[in-house]
Structure formats: structure tokens, C-alpha cells
Design goal:
By secondary structure, the protein is mainly beta. The chain has three helices and 14 strands.
Length: 247
């Protein structure tokens, strides 16, 4: 897992400069700067461990889903007082949808949930003592298996049967589209066509993933799949990464 780089979210962001992130170890989404931790760890050092997983700020509640055990959600007690602000800052200049999970690495410990959290459906809580990594989900850190993750100059598309979603982010227009996942039409494992509709938003999507070498820059590593995505007539061209869900 890549270490966090302490750089601020840029005011203007394009995805093209990091299309070759597999080679150059760069991010495909903006990052936030984690303030230095000045809190004491004296009460946590004996049982403290590092947790990696997905975090979300909900309505009056914080929740964490561990990568190694994604079937279980933990309530979160944020002793750092930073996580809500980091969550807001992460999407300040990037499109987002309600209750979107982000990838985090934190130090803390798990304990039995207090009555208030039990009533909210949690049997355990994670007390966070230190935040190590705080990033938007991308194909490099997503710990829930996905089918494909397509990326282009200023857009990305996550296709995930496990999460039952297709998430299209248009960074140039600052828009995000959420669709229900449907199995693709498969032509000899060489061409996969995904299609869905979001009737509430009046948006349709068609994504054609083709097995062929793909690179938008000769200096970058080639991907094994190309991607052509159409949303309400607008065409996006890019490359795609196959996830472990389909390997």
C-alpha cells in the first residue's frame, strides 16, 4: 500500500497527468494534507494497531469498514477531532456523492460499542488515535473487489459488482453519476459492454471495455484494456484496469 504524500488539493485538477500512476506511483484523485498529530498515545499504546479500510461521514455518525473484513461496519470515535474536516476537504475540489466512502489508514483500537452505537446497529467501535492516510477511493487503494476501473484525461469510472454500482466522475464538469450495476454483455472476453440508467437523474451510461493495449502517452506504461464511455451522448475515451473481481 502506498504511503501518504502530504500535498494539498490543487485548485484545478486534471487526471491526465497521472494516467500512468501504476508506473509513477502517483494518485488518480486529489489528496488532503494531514495535520501533524500532537495528541498523546499513552492510553492506547498497549492495544493500538493499524487499521486499513473505508470511512464515511453519515448523518450524526462516523463509520468504518475494514479491508480484511468488509462484511462488518464499526462505529468510529474520532479522538483526533480531524476526520470530519479531512473528509470535507477531500471533496472540496472534486465531485462527490452523498455518503461516499474514502480510503483511510488509522491507528487505534476496537472495543465494545456503547449503548448509543448499539442502537445505531454497531456492536463494536473503532477509537481512532492517529490518522495516517486519507484518500479518495481509486484503483490502487480500493479494498472492495471491482470489475474495472476506467480512467481518462479528466474522468474516472468504477464498475463494481460487489458494491452493485457504477460510479462515473467527470472532473472537468465537477459532476458525479451513480448507476446500478448490471452484468455486461460479453463478447468472447474481448469486449465487455456495461449499460445502466439513472432514471431519477435522467442519465444513461454505456461503457465499452475492450481487451487491447491502451496508453494516451507513449512515455507511459500501457494498460491491457481500453475504455469508451458514453453518458447522454457525451463520449469519454481512456484506458481501463481490470480488478481482482474478474481475474
Amino acid at each position: 500500500m502506498m504511503a501518504m504524500k502530504n500535498i494539498l488539493i490543487p485548485l484545478f485538477f486534471t487526471l491526465g497527468s497521472v494516467l500512468g500512476s501504476c508506473k509513477n506511483d502517483k494518485k488518480v484523485t486529489p489528496e488532503v494534507q494531514i495535520p501533524p498529530d500532537t495528541t498523546s498515545t499513552s492510553n492506547f499504546s498497549s492495544n493500538e494497531k493499524t487499521f486499513k479500510g473505508l470511512f464515511v461521514v453519515g448523518k450524526n455518525i462516523l463509520s468504518f469498514r475494514e479491508c480484511d473484513h468488509p462484511e462488518k461496519d464499526f462505529g468510529v470515535i474520532d479522538s483526533t477531532g480531524k476526520m470530519k474536516d479531512l473528509y470535507k476537504a477531500l471533496f472540496l475540489h472534486s465531485p462527490a456523492f452523498p455518503y461516499e466512502y474514502v480510503y483511510v489508514e488509522v491507528k487505534g483500537q476496537v472495543s465494545a460499542a456503547p449503548d448509543a452505537d448499539v442502537r445505531r446497529g454497531f456492536d463494536s467501535v473503532l477509537t481512532v488515535e492517529e490518522v495516517l492516510t486519507f484518500e479518495q477511493k481509486n484503483y490502487q487503494n480500493s479494498c472492495i473487489p471491482y470489475d474495472f476501473w476506467a480512467i481518462g484525461k479528466d474522468w474516472s469510472l468504477q464498475i463494481s459488482e460487489k458494491e452493485d454500482m457504477m460510479i462515473m466522475k467527470d472532473f472537468s464538469a465537477m459532476k458525479v453519476y451513480v448507476f446500478k450495476y448490471f452484468p455486461p454483455k460479453n463478447q468472447n472476453d474481448e469486449v465487455l459492454t456495461y449499460a445502466s440508467n439513472n432514471y431519477a437523474a435522467g442519465v444513461a451510461i454505456k461503457a465499452v471495455i475492450r481487451k487491447e493495449a491502451c496508453s494516451e502517452d507513449s512515455s507511459q506504461s500501457a494498460f491491457q484494456y481500453s475504455a469508451r464511455v458514453i453518458i447522454n451522448g457525451k463520449v469519454f475515451q481512456g484506458c481501463a484496469i481490470q480488478g481482482i473481481a474478474t481475474q
